[in-house]
Amino acid sequence: MNLNYNRIIELLEGQPEQYVSGEALSRELNISRTAVWKQMKKLESQGYRIEASRRLGYRLMGKPSKLTLPELLVKLEGTTLVRSIKLLDSVDSTQNIAQQMAEEGAPEGTLVIADQQTNGRGRLGRSWVSPAGKGVWMSLVLRPGIPLQFAPQLTLLTAVALCRALKSVVPLEIGIKWPNDLLIGGKKISGILLESTAEDERLRYVIAGVGVSVNLEPEDYPKELLDVATSLLIAGGEHIDRGAVVAAFIRQLEHLYAVYQREGFGPIRTLWEALSVTLHKPTKLYAPTEVFEGTPIGLDERGALLVEKADGSVVPVFSAEMRFPEANSGG
Amino acid sequence: MNLNYNRIIELLEGQPEQYVSGEALSRELNISRTAVWKQMKKLESQGYRIEASRRLGYRLMGKPSKLTLPELLVKLEGTTLVRSIKLLDSVDSTQNIAQQMAEEGAPEGTLVIADQQTNGRGRLGRSWVSPAGKGVWMSLVLRPGIPLQFAPQLTLLTAVALCRALKSVVPLEIGIKWPNDLLIGGKKISGILLESTAEDERLRYVIAGVGVSVNLEPEDYPKELLDVATSLLIAGGEHIDRGAVVAAFIRQLEHLYAVYQREGFGPIRTLWEALSVTLHKPTKLYAPTEVFEGTPIGLDERGALLVEKADGSVVPVFSAEMRFPEANSGG
Question: What value of ipTM does the predicted structure carry?
Answer without folding.
Answer: 0.75
